[in-house]
Design brief:
The complex is a heterodimer.
Chain A: H1 3-8, H2 14-33, H3 40-52, E1 62-69, E2 72-79
Antiparallel strand pairs in A: 1-2
Chain B: E1 3-8, H1 16-29, E2 34-38, H2 46-49, H3 60-64, H4 70-73, E3 75-76, E4 83-86, H5 99-111, E5 116-120, H6 127-134, E6 138-143, H7 147-162, H8 165-168, E7 175-183, H9 185-189, H10 196-203, E8 207-212, H11 215-223, H12 234-246, H13 263-268
Parallel strand pairs in B: 1-5, 1-6, 2-4, 2-5, 6-7, 7-8
Antiparallel strand pairs in B: 3-4
The chains are: A alpha+beta, B alpha/beta.
């Protein structure tokens, strides 16, 4: 890295850009070519874990749904929080 | 037990044939009986890389069609004991190879006591590439640190896991290996090239080796001599490491860190 770059501050490198683009497209292609969206149950489980760090919710509180309409995929997340009294 | 290896990548020009030649030679140098087969029907090149192009009389398709025996078509390497080359045909007929035909040749090689059969896949995901990987026990997926190559490698990994003989018959899956070629540690350090770690994170396959970008590779192909035989060269040594790992030995990775620059080049260099 040259002196000039040092003073310009750290820019996003092209390698980082390449990696990010690949991660997105490969995840997408894997979902299409390898037996559909098998990551959904995992996503649901992990979301539930994250939410539970902040709010006590039941197992059914998180619903993940994926729809495909006119070539567009819509990922629908429905998280039901308990009533404010129940949260104390 | 004969082990069938496929060297594949999806994308062309990443070093499949260079890798097939060097891995096959390396395995033979360690005392194995090895056949390396060119599956690129219509565009054969393994013969050139192996330096046997003037000795091709019969080819893979001749054997499949019963026009020549396997022994007539196998070209015995004059430098390395136990190394044999089976050239691809230059026919334009895309359907010259069939699953039954390939199976017969592989079975005959097994019966002849070969320890390893290395299948050099053509680029793409057409018939030739499918047949090259179909009967494999292990796969070496060759990838450059470049977006198009990594994406195609991922596609190939998916196909290996779903469309091979092992996958279809619910046998233990093909053992997959990643071989990174044309790697430049200096450029990776500068953030101009994806690092080996980046590629491993995306592809999630065990690493067989990293072959540095090296003038030795072109020199070797110019001379028709697998680069692994150039024992002084970085690429040759990296292939030798890869062969050792393939055989289960532990070898530390080499040629993945940039050479330290001297004071002079650090002050006045790029």
């Amino acid at each position: 890295m040259s002196l000039l770059n040092f003073f310009r501050g750290k820019r996003e490198t092209s390698a980082k850009l390449a990696k990010e683009r690949l991660q997105i497209i490969i995840a997408h292609e894997r979902a299409q070519t390898r037996g559909g969206h098998d990551f959904l149950p995992m996503l649901e489980k992990e979301l539930l874990e994250v939410i539970r760090r902040y709010v006590a919710v039941s197992d059914e509180a998180v619903k993940v749904k994926l729809d495909r309409e006119d070539g567009v995929e819509v990922l629908e997340l429905n998280i039901i929080l308990p009533d404010s009294e129940a949260r104390d | 037990m004969t082990k069938i290896l496929v060297v594949t990548s999806g994308k062309g020009g990443v070093g499949k044939t260079t890798t097939s030649a060097s891995i096959a030679t390396g395995l033979a140098l360690r005392g194995n009986k090895v056949a390396v087969i060119d599956f690129d029907v219509g565009l054969r090149n393994l013969d050139l890389i192996m330096g046997v192009e003037r000795r091709v009389v019969y080819d893979f398709v001749n054997v499949v069609n019963g026009e020549a025996s396997l022994n007539q078509a196998l070209i015995k390497d004059k430098r390395v004991e136990g190394l044999y080359v089976l050239a691809a045909s230059q026919t334009k007929d895309k359907d010259a190879l069939t699953e039954e035909g390939v199976k017969k040749v592989l079975d005959d090689l097994k019966a002849d006591g070969f320890d390893y059969i290395v299948c050099d896949s053509p680029a793409g995901i057409e018939k030739g590439a499918q047949l090259a990987m179909y009967f494999a026990d292990e796969a070496i997926v060759v990838s450059n640190p470049e977006v198009s190559s990594v994406r195609d490698s991922d596609r190939m990994l998916g196909l290996l896991a779903s469309k091979s003989h092992r996958a279809i018959n619910n046998l233990p899956p093909i053992k997959q290996h990643l071989l990174v070629t044309r790697y430049s540690p200096t450029r990776a350090d500068a953030g101009e090239m994806m690092s080996v770690e980046d590629m491993l994170e995306i592809l999630a396959v065990p690493l067989l080796g990293v072959i540095p970008e090296s003038p030795a590779v072109l020199n070797a192909s110019n001379a028709g001599q697998p680069v692994i035989m150039d024992k002084e060269s970085d690429a040759g040594q990296a292939y030798e490491d890869a062969v050792a790992r393939l055989l289960g030995e532990e070898r530390p990775l080499r040629f993945i860190t940039a050479e330290k620059k001297g004071l002079f080049s650090r002050l006045f260099g790029k």
